[in-house]
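Issue 218. Parser rejects a valid record. Input:
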Amino acid sequence: MDRRIGQLLSLDGRIALVTGAATGIGEAIARTLVSAGASVTIGDIDTEGAVRVGDDIGATVVELDVTDAQQATEVVDAIDGLDLLVNNAGTYHEAGSILDQPVDSWRRSIDVNLAGLFNCSKPAASSMVAGGRNGTIVNIASVDGLLPCLGTGYDSAKAGAIQFSRSLAVDLAPHGIRVNAVSPGHVPVPTLAKMQAGEIEPLWPRDPSVSGLMGPLMRQRSSNIPLGRSAEVDEIANAVLFLSSEASSYVTGQNLTVDGGWTLV
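Output the parser choked on:
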């Protein structure tokens, strides 16, 4: 293989912040970016999980609640030379019908899944512009931002994440900063496994209201993925690597759907 091809995916010398990387997709992203040569800081509210990952891959760990704009700014400002931000932190708790969802649940879904992107992207972009760095921002959205699935809070926030990425891409283009989104399909992350095992509370009430969400239509869709299987977390991380690297140097404002064809049927 031509050496230049391999170099396209190299992140040597890049300084990255990955939010929500204590487990699941975020953990896979952090591991992949480190493997590609990046110096990674993990920012997560779950410091115990983040330390586990950080110690294993040689990443710096900081406590970060993405809903706290001041804390997000302090974390970003403490990273010298940040040129890659992956906004992965999110939550899909208390999904299901609007008939069951308290307003506080709705607000938290928007705060974490959408406002958190702004809270981290603003100081990151300011740092990149001030330092004259042609940085990259990758936002983890979801197929639920394209097709209704979990609930109005989560689905709306993820749709907002996709449009936020498009708008921010145009906003920051004059500074050479690229912004893209990745929308994973069905991924069997540890949180879902713990719910199914009864180790943590389920996403929706035990006796939920009748709803077109989380029902037969949704189960039919998730069981009819054209590639015939769920995604591995590394497959989502590989998409993030592509959008973070020079291999995608002319790609901005796009939403890369990594769903095995789920949204096609």
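Fixed in the parser; the record now loads. The chain has a mean pLDDT of 94.
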